[in-house]
Amino acid sequence: MIMRIFQVVTKPGKEEAFSRFFHETAIPLMRGTKGIVQVLPGAPRPDSPREFSFVMVWDSLESLKAFVGEDYDSPHVDPAEAELVESRSIRHYELVGG
Asked: Where on the phi/psi map is residue 77: left (φ > 0), alpha (ψ -120 to 50), or beta?
């Protein structure tokens, strides 16, 4: 399984608008995506008020590629969030069973 960590820093002043997008669009979309085993959304904390994240567990690299394409190492952006986001990062790991 693949663990995908996607992090976003909003533009200053865009936190509330991005929060609406995050809760109303992004979280439901990811929870309904074929191949995703688990979605762990992360909202800002007082020490990082502009940072949002997703930890997603995918059943396979093939499922991830079916969703985002062959260029899975690049953060893909929904047009609705493009004007709200200052930076994005994405990392992938092999999930270690516990």
From this structure: beta
Record the tokens describing residue 60, joined without a space: 């396979």
What lies within 8 Å, CB to CB, of 82 at 6+ separation is none
* pLDDT tens profile 26-84: 999 999 999 999 999 999 999 999 999 999 999 999 999 999 889 888 877 778 788 99
Q: What are phi and psi of 58, to 5 degrees?
A: -105, 145
CATH topology of domain 2-94: Alpha-Beta Plaits (3.30.70)
pTM to 2 decimal places:
0.87
